[in-house]
């Protein structure tokens, strides 16, 4: 039985300079508002090495319909309200994961014989 590919959300957030640590702490503190949703597969916070006030947030969902339901939910609006004062600007892109190619470092190492 083939499963539906994950629906991926990719956010770019630019944080007001000097508020990066506060943003990271807030994101961690309130992250369960996203990850506790039954359709959420996980999320990642990445800080740009090139622009220290820029972050990338990736979030995977079971499907687009359930993400869109979450997006308009009270829990998401509350989540956004806490992060919004820290944000200078942001953008969102969405897509369905087509395939995943595992890298050599992620493959199991055969046991020594």
UniProtKB/TrEMBL annotation:
Pfam families: ABM. Residues 7-97 form the ABM domain. It comes from the Bacteria. This is Putative enzyme involved in biosynthesis of extracellular polysaccharide. It comes from Frankia torreyi.
């Amino acid at each position: 039985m083939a499963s539906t590919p994950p629906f991926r959300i990719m956010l770019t957030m630019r944080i007001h300079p000097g508020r990066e640590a506060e943003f990271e702490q807030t994101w961690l503190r309130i992250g369960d508002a996203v990850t506790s949703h039954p359709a959420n597969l996980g999320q990642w916070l990445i800080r740009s090495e090139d622009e220290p006030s820029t972050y990338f947030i990736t979030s995977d969902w079971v499907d687009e319909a359930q993400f869109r339901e979450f997006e308009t939910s009270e829990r998401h609006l509350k989540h956004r309200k806490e992060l919004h004062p820290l944000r200078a600007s942001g953008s969102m892109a969405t897509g369905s994961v087509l395939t995943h190619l595992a890298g050599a470092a992620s493959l199991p190492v055969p046991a020594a014989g």
